[in-house]
Amino acid sequence: MARITSGICTSHIPAVGAALDNGKTEQDYWKPVFAGFEWVKAFEQAEKPDVVVLIYNDHASAFDMKVIPTFAIGCGEAFAPADEGWGPRPVPVVEGHPDLAWHIAQSCILDEFDLTIINEMKVDHGLTVPMSLMFGQPAAWPVKVVPVAVNVVTYPPPTGNRCWALGEAIRRAVESYPEDLNVQIWGTGGMSHQLQGARAGLINQTWDKAFLDKLTADPASLRRTQHIEYLREAGSEGIELVMWLIMRGALGADPQELHRFYHVPASNTAVGHIVLRPAVD
Ligand code: DHB
Ligand code: FE
């Protein structure tokens, strides 16, 4: 049967994708950012996941004010990079896993978690930048992806507790898929950042680091963390962090922290990254 073998979270800063695409990774500003992902690149080469359930948010690329799904699952064969204003990123098309995606959709919906099914969509930096950070610049991505898009752009986003419960439902879905598949779940976005208004540029290292600590050690408190705390402490776009709780909910009790990286600044954002291994049951 399919198994979730690790959970990985990372920020998805668009400027990181642009630095990579434009050959700037060796510049003084960017070097420490990319150095922080060397560990996970080696980890991915050793782990060889078959599929990533990739939790991310779209930034008005595939969805806009006309359609705002709270949780959407990509069941298509392939997802091309979106044009976010400078042309699509020069990265491979993301290959889906329609069988697993439809299975997760069925399992979650019958588990009373009503995901929106999307067969055609483009994917933006929220999904492609984490792919680049984990896998570098290959001619084709070495993994299939089941994209799960979460609305954290237009109020109201889902609660952290609801995100956690979705993670639990995704785990049940994956573990009821009959084929032996090495599946990872990723949470993306964050950490603290605010892109507009009087507090633009806000970065709260103390709060971010406490969030990383609690992800392993005190997740129950994160389930109860209210939107207003994310906004106040981590800035308006810090709310992207609720997506990390989907990853965490899918791992169950007592995961082991394998790796962590935190760096300030990159663009307007703190870079956060963590790799967790679920406990064997
Ligand atoms: C930035 C960060 C994001 O998460 C995003 O979606 C857009 C921009 C930034 O740091 O500029
Ligand atoms: Fe974002």
Task: Characterise this structure.
The mean pLDDT is about 95. The strands form 2 sheets. This protein has an 8-stranded mixed sheet with strand order 6-3-7-2-8-1-10-9, with helices on both faces. β9 and β10 (about 270-275) form a beta hairpin. It has one domain: Protocatechuate 4,5-dioxygenase, Chain B (3-Layer(aba) Sandwich). α1 (about 15-20) crosses α5 and α6 (about 160-175) packs across α10 (about 245-250). It has about 280 residues and is an alpha/beta fold. The protein has helices spanning about 15-20, 30-35, 40-45, 100-110, 125-135, 160-175, 205-215, 220-225, 225-235, 245-250; strands spanning about 5-10, 50-55, 70-75, 80, 95, 115-120, 145-150, 180-190, 255-265, 270-275.
Point out poorly predicted stretches: none
Strands across the major sheet, in which order? 6-3-7-2-8-1-10-9
Strand content: 15-25%
CATH class: Alpha Beta
The hetero compounds bound to this protein are: 3,4-dihydroxybenzoic acid, fe (iii) ion
Using the 3D structure, state the CATH architecture: 3-Layer(aba) Sandwich
Q: For the CA atoms, what is the radius of gyration?
A: 17 Å
Determine the mean pLDDT: 97
| First-last Cα distance | 14 Å
| Number of DSSP strand runs | 10
Tally of individual helices: 10
Q: How many domain units?
A: 1
Main sheet specs: 8 strands, mixed
Shape: globular
